[in-house]
Design a protein that fits this description.
The chain has 15 helices and 30 strands. The protein has 637 residues and is of the alpha+beta class. Strands 20-17-12-13-14-21-24 form a 7-stranded mixed sheet, with helices on both faces. Strands 1, 2, 3, 4, 10 and 11 form a 6-stranded mixed sheet that branches.
Length: 637
């Protein structure tokens, strides 16, 4: 069997790693470089694309033929891509619900195809290292990637020639790289992962050698790229104020600014001041501007602060407070920034915050003995890849004392009669996971059932996201007789499979979620926040709908009983039943369509009164049914 390697397919840089003689390491290319920029340049003609550092060098002079930060678009649809996102990267095609594509030299490339080119380069580096073919890989994704994005990442790996053995969450991989499996039992760790294009905060717990993700929250469109763009906008303003010639307004200018912004940002993590120089923007115009760390922090503080609500939500979901944590580990190149480290230390009350300048350790700027330790012992650029390599070694049987468990970030369920969401897999359930439930019909002589798969945290189906619909057929029968089992399974890659089976015939259908609805991460956060803000309103709506369905069923049964027992029910008793039934109908009429609820107390009281009033009638009908059954069986005359 081929060796299994670990790959961090990053927004800005990608890495490939392995475990050699029990030691995880990042595999370098022929020039000894361990980070491969996630950049692809497509030359004209039939020439092979340039990847990594070579493509990055060409990006400045040929930006229209060079693709970068494509991870932000993988698994997304055209309708989900904003004009702002298009304007700061490269031309994108694909509209409506169609797939996103990138037109270059008259050909449209998907983000998966671009990513596959990067993965092929990493595969080549690994094969040079081992001297043999490598066909199996573990690939990491942000913890908040949805089903479509995970599918697309796996597809990219397959296009590159890999069998993708596992898709794992980046923060979880980082925890392995930091060696947190050696902590004391019941240790709790927060992984703050801020990379080039994505952010995640995950809370993990170690229990008897098992890593379990208690909660995760994040934003797949928040990262170092946003800081770079903020600095680019600042530089554009300064250039405009210098009255430049109109000739500098070219695509090449934006590429040069992006490169200069990224380099300045990196230098200001270890220095306090740099000069951003852009010579010869035209033959007669050069630009130079001194820039300080304080200036960068002022520009970007608001962007870093956007990670705060995600951190608080993950803590709340995990039901822990910062003081309950043992460590906070930093992952992603952007966490080298002193502002980020100070922000994290303040937010979690960390006991240590290590400050360096020019590679020289200056000491600890903070000391809070009662807080978790801020762990910066690993290279934040490499931690995820190393963790992926460790996971690959676990799958190969090399490490036997560590198990990795992730969670699903949003609840999954189906729509039931009345427009409610019935949750099968709750949010933050450990994966892989399988859950199912039996459902029946609400209408006589139904011949099929619509399975509407939902994702979200609200009580009513209409307030959640639709992942897909399919229908399963069965034999016509009275309501309540058919039995359809619905099973959800989330595999180790976080991908959902839905099965529906008619228990009588064994007939079944399986839904392949090839293109689950992509939702903006701001909308994900908004949904979680709305589930809290509307918790009482949603609960009231659910209680009303459940009471309404019961009331409607009771009214139907009562009217049928009155019709069946016409000659046996005294007039005054019939009048009392009809009055009670009218009270229930009146209570049902209090429903306000815009609110989806009515006077629940009145309905419950009216329904209880109808139940009490019809009890003697129910007993009579039950006795009649029992007598008929016994007579049919010949047990009585």
């Amino acid at each position: 069997m081929s060796k299994i390697i670990g790959i961090d397919l990053g927004t800005t840089n990608s890495l490939v790693a392995t475990v050699d003689s029990g030691i995880p390491l990042v595999i370098a290319d022929r020039e000894g470089r361990r980070l491969t920029p996630s950049v692809v340049h497509f030359p004209a003609g039939d020439a092979e694309p340039l990847v990594g550092h070579e493509a990055n060098r060409v990006r400045v002079i040929k930006p229209a033929e060079t693709v970068y930060s494509v991870k932000r678009f993988i698994g997304r649809r055209g309708a989900e891509i904003s004009e702002d996102e298009k304007s700061v990267t490269y031309p994108l095609a694909g509209a409506g619900t169609g797939a996103v594509t990138i037109p270059i030299h008259g050909k449209n490339f998907t983000p998966e195809e671009i990513s596959a080119v990067v993965l092929k380069k990493l595969k080549h580096d690994a094969e040079n290292y081992f001297g043999e073919a490598i066909t199996r890989a573990v690939i990491t994704v942000p913890a908040y990637f949805n089903d479509a994005q995970r599918h697309a990442t796996k597809r990219a790996g397959e296009l590159a020639g890999f069998t993708v053995e596992r898709i794992i969450n980046e923060p979880t991989a980082a925890a392995l790289a930091y060696g947190l499996d050696r902590l004391k039992e019941k240790s709790r760790i927060a992984v703050y992962d801020l990379g080039g294009g994505t952010f995640d905060l995950s809370i993990l717990e170690l229990n008897e050698g098992v890593f379990q993700v208690l909660a995760t929250h994040g934003n797949t469109r928040l990262g170092g790229d946003d800081l770079d763009q903020r600095l680019v906008d600042f530089l554009l303003q300064k250039i405009a104020a210098a009255n430049p010639p109109a000739a500098i307004r070219t695509p090449q200018l934006l590429s040069r600014l992006l490169e200069a912004a990224e380099q300045a940002k990196i230098k200001l993590s270890t220095e306090t001041e740099v000069t951003i120089a852009l010579p010869f923007l035209t033959p007669d115009f050069s630009f130079s501007h001194p820039f300080t760390r304080a200036g960068l922090e002022e520009l970007t503080r608001e962007i870093i602060a956007r990670t705060r609500p995600h951190c608080l939500r993950a803590l709340a979901d995990a039901k822990v407070e910062p003081k309950d944590l043992d460590q906070v580990i930093l992952v992603g190149g952007q966490t080298r920034m002193p502002l980020v480290r100070k922000f994290v230390s303040d937010l979690f009350g960390c006991s240590e915050f290590e400050e360096t300048r020019g590679g020289v350790r200056l000491g600890h700027a903070f000391h809070k003995p009662d807080g978790p330790q801020l762990n910066t012992s690993q290279n934040p650029d490499e931690a995820v890849a190393l963790g992926a390599a460790i996971q690959a070694e676990i799958l190969s049987g090399g490490f036997k004392n560590v198990l990795l468990l992730d969670v699903t970030p949003l609840s999954l369920g189906v729509e039931t009669f009345g427009g409610l969401m019935n949750v099968l897999i709750p949010r933050n359930s450990t994966i892989p996971v399988k859950a199912g439930e039996l459902f029946t019909t609400a209408v006589d002589h139904q011949r099929s059932m619509l399975i509407h798969v939902l994702q979200g945290e609200r009580e009513r189906a209409r307030d959640n996201w639709s992942l897909g619909r399919f229908t399963i057929e069965f034999e016509s029968a009275p309501r309540g007789v058919p039995r359809v089992g619905v099973q959800f399974e989330i595999d180790a890659n976080g991908i959902l499979h839905v099965l529906a089976r008619d228990t009588q015939t064994g007939r079944e259908k399986i839904m392949e979620l090839k293109s689950a609805v992509d939702v903006d991460d701001a909308a994900v956060q908004q949904m979680v926040e709305e589930s809290v803000a509307h918790a009482f309103e949603d609960l009231a709506a659910r209680r009303w709908i459940e009471a309404k369905l019961r009331a409607q069923a009771t009214l139907a049964a009562t009217r049928k009983a009155l019709a069946d027992g016409t000659g046996e029910i005294e007039a005054d008793y019939r009048a009392r039943i009809e009055t009670a039934a009218r009270d229930v109908a009146s209570a049902l009429a209090t429903e306000k369509p815009e609110a989806g609820a009515g006077d629940l107390k009145s309905l419950q009281a009216a329904l209880a009164a109808l139940d009490e009033t019809t009890r003697p009638l129910a007993e009579v009908l039950m006795d009649r049914a029992m007598t008929a059954m016994l007579r049919k069986r010949g047990l009585i005359q």
